[in-house]
C-alpha cells in the first residue's frame, strides 16, 4: 500500500470510469486497473464492482475510499508543514527584546520582515535582559536582543554584539529645572531632588551613569520609578517633576515637537549599554526566525552607527561590534 495507490482508488471513485481516471493520474488504463486490483488484493476488500461498461463502488469500498481521502489529506498537510519548517513560509517565531531596542528599532524590523514573510506570526516579549534570559533557557523564545553588560559568561549561549545607543536625561518643558531656561547648564546634584524614572538597568550600567554625571558614592541617586514600558514612562512625564533616562534616537520626535526637553547636564560619556543578539548555542533556527534575527541585528547596528555620529562624545568606547 502506498500513497499513489490511495490516490488511484480515490480518483477512480470520482470518475467511475477507468479511461478517464487513468488519464487524470497519467497512467495507461491497464496500469491503473493493475494498481487498483493490487490494492484490493492487499487489503482483502473489493472496492469496485466492475462490469464491461460500468464501475460502481461497493458498500465496503465506500468506507475504504472515505478513509483513503482522509489519509491523503493528512499526508498532504504533513508534507506542507514539513516544507514550511524547511523554508520558513509559515508558522510562528518567538523573539525577545529589551525596552530600548524594542522602542527604537523593532518596528522597522517587523515591517521589513512582513514584506518577506507575510504568513509568519511573530510572538514578541519585551522585558529586561534577566527575564528574557529565563525565557530563552526555557525555550519560550528563540533569541533576544538586550543589554548584556551584566550577563555572566555562559557556555550554553551564543552572543553576537550589535551595538547600543547614547543616553540622556529628559523632562517635561514645565519642569522646575528648565521652565525658565530650557538650555541652561544644570549641575548634576540638582537632579537629586526630583523623581528619577528609568527602565530596568544592569547595576553596572547604572553605576557608570552615576559616575558619568560626576556624582559620588555619597550622593543618593537611585531609580524612583522603574518600568520596562517606555511608553508608560513618557505618558507619566507631562506636568510632572519626573526626570527620565532615555536614548537620543527615541526622543527625537518628542524633542522636535517640544513635548520634552533634554537636560543640559555635563556627562563624561553617554553610551553605557552593550547590546547583543543572544541565542542558545547550537540551536537550529527555522529560516524565518534566522532571517528576522539578521534583520534586527543589521537594523540595530546601522542605527547605532547613526546614533554614534549624531550624539556620541569622544570618551565613549567604540561600538562593541567594531572592536577588534
TrEMBL record:
<dbReference type="Pfam" id="PF03466">
    <property type="entry name" value="LysR_substrate"/>
</dbReference>
<protein>
    <recommendedName>
        <fullName>HTH lysR-type domain-containing protein</fullName>
    </recommendedName>
</protein>
<keyword id="KW-0238">DNA-binding</keyword>
<dbReference type="GO" id="GO:0003677">
    <property type="term" value="F:DNA binding"/>
</dbReference>
<dbReference type="GO" id="GO:0003700">
    <property type="term" value="F:DNA-binding transcription factor activity"/>
</dbReference>
<keyword id="KW-0804">Transcription</keyword>
<dbReference type="Pfam" id="PF00126">
    <property type="entry name" value="HTH_1"/>
</dbReference>
<dbReference type="InterPro" id="IPR000847">
    <property type="entry name" value="LysR_HTH_N"/>
</dbReference>
<dbReference type="InterPro" id="IPR005119">
    <property type="entry name" value="LysR_subst-bd"/>
</dbReference>
<keyword id="KW-0805">Transcription regulation</keyword>
<dbReference type="InterPro" id="IPR050950">
    <property type="entry name" value="HTH-type_LysR_regulators"/>
</dbReference>
<feature type="domain" description="HTH lysR-type">
    <location>
        <begin position="1"/>
        <end position="58"/>
    </location>
</feature>
<dbReference type="InterPro" id="IPR036390">
    <property type="entry name" value="WH_DNA-bd_sf"/>
</dbReference>
<comment type="similarity">
    <text>Belongs to the LysR transcriptional regulatory family.</text>
</comment>
<dbReference type="GO" id="GO:0005829">
    <property type="term" value="C:cytosol"/>
</dbReference>
<dbReference type="InterPro" id="IPR036388">
    <property type="entry name" value="WH-like_DNA-bd_sf"/>
</dbReference>
Amino acid at each position: 500500500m502506498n500513497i499513489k495507490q490511495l490516490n488511484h482508488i480515490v480518483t477512480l471513485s470520482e470518475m467511475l470510469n477507468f479511461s478517464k481516471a487513468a488519464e487524470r493520474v497519467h497512467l495507461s488504463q491497464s496500469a491503473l486497473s493493475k494498481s487498483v486490483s493490487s490494492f484490493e488484493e492487499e487489503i482483502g476488500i473489493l472496492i469496485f464492482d466492475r462490469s464491461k461498461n460500468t464501475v460502481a463502488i461497493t458498500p465496503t469500498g465506500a468506507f475504504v475510499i472515505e478513509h483513503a481521502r482522509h489519509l491523503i489529506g493528512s499526508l498532504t498537510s504533513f508534507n506542507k508543514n514539513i516544507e514550511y519548517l524547511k523554508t520558513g513560509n509559515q508558522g510562528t517565531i518567538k523573539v525577545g527584546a529589551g525596552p530600548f531596542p524594542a522602542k527604537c528599532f523593532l518596528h522597522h524590523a517587523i515591517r521589513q520582515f512582513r514584506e518577506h514573510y507575510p504568513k509568519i506570526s511573530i510572538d514578541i516579549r519585551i522585558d529586561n535582559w534577566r527575564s528574557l534570559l529565563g525565557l530563552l533557557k526555557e525555550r519560550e523564545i528563540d533569541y533576544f536582543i538586550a543589554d548584556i553588560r551584566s550577563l555572566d559568561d555562559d557556555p550554553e549561549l551564543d552572543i553576537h554584539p550589535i551595538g547600543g545607543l547614547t543616553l540622556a536625561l529628559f523632562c517635561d518643558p514645565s519642569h522646575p529645572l528648565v521652565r525658565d531656561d530650557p538650555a541652561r547648564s544644570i549641575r548634576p546634584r540638582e537632579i537629586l531632588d526630583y523623581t528619577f524614572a528609568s527602565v530596568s538597568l544592569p547595576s553596572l550600567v547604572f553605576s557608570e551613569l552615576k559616575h558619568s554625571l560626576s556624582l559620588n558614592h555619597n550622593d543618593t541617586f537611585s531609580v524612583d520609578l522603574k518600568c520596562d514600558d517606555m511608553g508608560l514612562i513618557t505618558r507619566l512625564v507631562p506636568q510632572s517633576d519626573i526626570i527620565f533616562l532615555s536614548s537620543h534616537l527615541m526622543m527625537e520626535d518628542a524633542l522636535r515637537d517640544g513635548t520634552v526637553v533634554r537636560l543640559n547636564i555635563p556627562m563624561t560619556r553617554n553610551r553605557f549599554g552593550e547590546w547583543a543578539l543572544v541565542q542558545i548555542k547550537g540551536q537550529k533556527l527555522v529560516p524565518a526566525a534566522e532571517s528576522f534575527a539578521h534583520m534586527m541585528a543589521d537594523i540595530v547596528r546601522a542605527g547605532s552607527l547613526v546614533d554614534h555620529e549624531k550624539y556620541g562624545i569622544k570618551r565613549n568606547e567604540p561600538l562593541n561590534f567594531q572592536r577588534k
